[in-house]
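Narrative summary of target 7.
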Amino acid sequence: MIRWINWKNFFRTFLILALLTGLSYAALDLIQTKNNRMDIEDYEPKSTLVVSETLLTQAKYPFVDVHNHQFDMPLKDLNKLIIEMDRLNMGFMVNLSGFRGLYLQKSLKNIQENAPTRFGLFLNIDFEAIDEADFASKNVELIQKAVTDGVIGLKVYKSLGLTDHDNNGNRIAVDDPRLDPIWKACGDNGIPVLIHSGEPASFWAPKDRFNERWLELRQKPSRYRDPSRNPSFEEVLAEQHHVFKKHPNTTFINAHLGWMGGDLNRLGTHLDRYPNVMTEIGAVLAELGRQPHTARKFLIAYGERVLFGKDSYNEKEYHTYFRVLETADEYIPYYRKRHAHWRLYGLNLPDSILRKLYYKNALTLFPSISKDVFPLD
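Modeled conformation, tokenized:
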């Protein structure tokens, strides 16, 4: 017996199967898409590039780190830290976070009793006390006493010029004239001022896909400088540079390449203009390593004006510094993606420049550092 096809049921079944098949493919595509999507923080591709690697765990020469922070210095076991320093070939560490008062005195006592030839301490001032009647005289006296006690410099944090305010709620500019006695006192007492003013220029730029520090602003949103509520990048730098001009008898260390590491021609002009200014490479190695030819030329030309600095202390992170400064390696991974999503290239600096960068410039700037561990030839 011939059965006639129920076309209505046939098409209904066909449509249902087609729909189910389509949904299955759509679901599979969704799963695959989801699995192939990841946050930029999770993306860690393994390079297939085959090039030579020169993995260094120790600097070629003993070095002075002029930009370090040891916030527990009053109670720190310095002998344990010295073991790590020796592994790196770090001859001397400058702790910029000495603060003042009892904290400073305990830090100095720890150094003087346990490792007087390996550590130096910087003083820090409370700039938000600027409206006090005796602000200038008190801090000049503070500097004089601190130097007598063994302090070798003044560290100025980025809060000055950005977030420090006076009693009226006004931002304290870096070049506020009420601060002039402090800069003069440092010059009079023969100590340098390591000053961090401003931030990377990208922190003022829109937080969009064109901002190369987008990841950092996502991970550290407080670092964003809304142009509508903050002085501009150029305004803060101009205030800092004005201080350099007003106080030619004081030596300033413009921290982090003065946030001009992305424009080394500008930084060179800056150093030419202000002979009382030096700079250092703390936390900006990634700027140098992505422009190896330009950076090498700059460091050779300004070899007597640049100091070695690291900033936050991490023993293994120094290894990247040594590799970039000393070798000709290519495609070197950086250790902190929010600072650099790019790879670095070795500068292969000549020994004469390495010696200046690692220790000679610092020994000139800080004559109290013992010369025993440094080759002076």
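The first strand starts at residue 63 and ends at 68.
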